[in-house]
Backbone:
C-alpha cells in the first residue's frame, strides 16, 4: 500500500474552491481550479494566490550560522548586511552538482531562514545537518512545519495583501525586491516570487492561513494551482528543480552561474573545487517554436554546435507560442535557428533571450 499523501493546512479550502488535486512530491496539491489559462492571466494582469505550504522553511541559528552558510552555499551570504535581505543560491555536492536551490533570509549573524523545495525538503534537511555535524559548526537547524506559506503574485498583489492586512503595510511597503520583514515572529512577508510578477510570499502560523486565504478570496484574488505556476515560472525563465537541474548538473549548465560567488578565494564552499576544475561544456538557453506545436521536456535539439535537449517546455499563454528551456553545447546564441524533435518530426525554433516575459511584458 502506498503511503498517504501529505496535505497542507489549506486542503479543505482547495476542495471547496473546486480544485483538481494531484500528487506533487508526496503532497496532495491543486493543479488548477477550473481554467489554468485564466489563472495564469490573473497573475499577469491582476492578482493570484498559490498555496506553497508544501515548501519547507528551516530556521538556522547559533554563533556559527554565518560561517556555516558561507560553507554550505555557492552564493555568499556575507553580501547580506541589512536585516530582511534575501539571497538566492544553490547547495552543491562535492562534484559541483546542484543538491537544491533555495532562498535564504538574513535577520542577524546568528539568525537566518532558508526556504527549500518540497520534493527535496527531507533530503535537504539531512544534507544540511550532515554538513553542520561533520564540520562542527555551532548551529541549530529547526524545520518549521508549523508554518504555512502563501504566495500572492501579480501587479495588484501587494495592494490586495495590504487591503486584507492593513497593519502589515507599514512594515512591507518599503521592501525592495528580494527582501522580507518579520511582522510578528514567526510571520514573515517577503517581496519574492516564482512568477516574474511583483508580489509577496508570506510565511505565517498554519492556524492563521485559512483566514488570510478567505480574506484575499473576498478581495478578488484568484486561487491558482501548480499548472499556472509552471507556465508562469517558465515564461519568467525560472528553473524547476529535478527538471532543469539536479545533482548531475553544474549551476552554469542551468543558467545559474550568476549565483556562484568566487570573489573570496578563502571561502571554500562545498563544490568549489569541482567548479574551478571543470568548466561547463553546456549552457541553458530559451527556445521559441516557429511553427505550431508544443515543446515539452526531454526533446532533442539540434544546434550548429551539436545536439542538446529541452528541460522544460509549454505553450506560453502570454505569448501564444510554445517556449522551452534547453541545455545545449556552448556557443549557441540568441537569434540562432535550431530544430526540435516533436513526435519524430524536426520542427524549426529560435534561441531566445530569457526571461520570455517579465512584469506582464513579452521580452523574448
Residues:
Amino acid at each position: 500500500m502506498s503511503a498517504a499523501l501529505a496535505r497542507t493546512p489549506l486542503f479543505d479550502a482547495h476542495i471547496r474552491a473546486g480544485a483538481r488535486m494531484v500528487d506533487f512530491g508526496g503532497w496532495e496539491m491543486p493543479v488548477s481550479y477550473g481554467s489554468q489559462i485564466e489563472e495564469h492571466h490573473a497573475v499577469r494582469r491582476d492578482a493570484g494566490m498559490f498555496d506553497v505550504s508544501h515548501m519547507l522553511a528551516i530556521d538556522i541559528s547559533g554563533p556559527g550560522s554565518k560561517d556555516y552558510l558561507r560553507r554550505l552555499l555557492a552564493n555568499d551570504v556575507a553580501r547580506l548586511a541589512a536585516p530582511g535581505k534575501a539571497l538566492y543560491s544553490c547547495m552543491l555536492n562535492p562534484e559541483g552538482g546542484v543538491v537544491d536551490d533555495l532562498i535564504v533570509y538574513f535577520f542577524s549573524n546568528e539568525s537566518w531562514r532558508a526556504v527549500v523545495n518540497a520534493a527535496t525538503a527531507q533530503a535537504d534537511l539531512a544534507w544540511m545537518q550532515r554538513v553542520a555535524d561533520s564540520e562542527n559548526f555551532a548551529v541549530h537547524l529547526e524545520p518549521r512545519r508549523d508554518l504555512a506559506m502563501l504566495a500572492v503574485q501579480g501587479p495588484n498583489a501587494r495592494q490586495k495583501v495590504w487591503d486584507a492586512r492593513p497593519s502589515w503595510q507599514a512594515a512591507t511597503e518599503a521592501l525592495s525586491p528580494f527582501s522580507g520583514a518579520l511582522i510578528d515572529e514567526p510571520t514573515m512577508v517577503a517581496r519574492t516570487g516564482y512568477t516574474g510578477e511583483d508580489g509577496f510570499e508570506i510565511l505565517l502560523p498554519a492556524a492563521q492561513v485559512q483566514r488570510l486565504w478567505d480574506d484575499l478570496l473576498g478581495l478578488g484574488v484568484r486561487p491558482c494551482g501548480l499548472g499556472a505556476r509552471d507556465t508562469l515560472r517558465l515564461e519568467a525563465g525560472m528553473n524547476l528543480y529535478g527538471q532543469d537541474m539536479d545533482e548531475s548538473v553544474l549551476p552554469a549548465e542551468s543558467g545559474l552561474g550568476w549565483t556562484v560567488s568566487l570573489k573570496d578565494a578563502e571561502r571554500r564552499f562545498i563544490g568549489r573545487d569541482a567548479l574551478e576544475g571543470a568548466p561547463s561544456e553546456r549552457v541553458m538557453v530559451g527556445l521559441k517554436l516557429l511553427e505550431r506545436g508544443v515543446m515539452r521536456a526531454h526533446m532533442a535539439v539540434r544546434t550548429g554546435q551539436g545536439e542538446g535537449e529541452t528541460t522544460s517546455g509549454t505553450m506560453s499563454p502570454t505569448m501564444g507560442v510554445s517556449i522551452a528551456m534547453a541545455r545545449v553545447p556552448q556557443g549557441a546564441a540568441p537569434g540562432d535557428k535550431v530544430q526540435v524533435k516533436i513526435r519524430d518530426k524536426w520542427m524549426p525554433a529560435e534561441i531566445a533571450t530569457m526571461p520570455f516575459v517579465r512584469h506582464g511584458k513579452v521580452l523574448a
The longest helix spans residues 121-134. The domain at 281-362 is CATH 2.40.30.110 (Elongation Factor Tu (Ef-tu); domain 3). The mean pLDDT is 97. The chain has nine helices and 21 strands.
